[in-house]
Amino acid sequence: MKKARNDEYENLFNMIVEIPRWTNAKMEIATKEPMNPIKQYVKDGKLRYVANIFPYKGYIWNYGTLPQTWEDPHEKDKSTNCFGDNDPIDVCEIGSKILSCGEVIHVKILGILALIDEGETDWKLIAINANDPEASKFHGLRNIPVYTINRIVILPSLDRSQTSSLSYLPAHQDSCVPLDAALHVVLYFCSLLGLQSYLSCF
């Protein structure tokens, strides 16, 4: 996961879009399959979808992940006191454009939420497309619409295949906190593959 280069913004990262805005199918990178295709997730033999919340349909933001990150299931997170969920770190992109599944964009990280899902840490980075016309107006979470944050919190409970063991830590507005979390999952990824020299990219 190389940080994207841009003189206008700081702290840009590459994001892979898995789920476009206004869609219901739960798509994700199949990390255990060759070439890691993006596929609709299946649980208990059923394709997974998220429900609608009137007046919105499906996801109200573009959903994806930072490549080459990994939430270590053997490492207890100091913030959540729970182990990682064995997946790349998730990103909720709140820009104005509807993106495409598989698209790779540069995002500006604004904040982070920690979801505790069935006893596992599942970080949710909140970001905006660096090329969005409104991107320069966002600095942290203070000017993000409240309904956007609330939607991130309640969406997992709409997935009827999940259990109800969901909770969140408060959203962090300090820009250092989400960046620290992002870099930690890069460290875990490098450790997993034995790529310590990869850290020279940062």
Automatic annotation (TrEMBL):
Assigned protein family: Belongs to the PPase family.
Listed name of the protein: inorganic diphosphatase
The protein's UniProt keywords, in alphabetical order, are: Hydrolase, Magnesium, Metal-binding
What's a GO cellular component annotated to this UniProt protein?
cytoplasm
* EC code(s) of this entry: 3.6.1.1
Q: Which residues form a coiled coil?
A: none
Top EC class of this enzyme: hydrolase
Task: Give GO terms for biological process.
Answer: phosphate-containing compound metabolic process
Cofactor(s) listed in the protein's UniProt record = Mg(2+)
| CDD domains, sorted | pyrophosphatase (cd00412)
The scientific name of the source species is Homo sapiens (Human)
SUPFAM superfamilies registered for this protein in UniProt = Inorganic pyrophosphatase
For the keyword Transcription, the answer is: no
Please give the Gene Ontology molecular function terms for this protein.
inorganic diphosphate phosphatase activity; magnesium ion binding
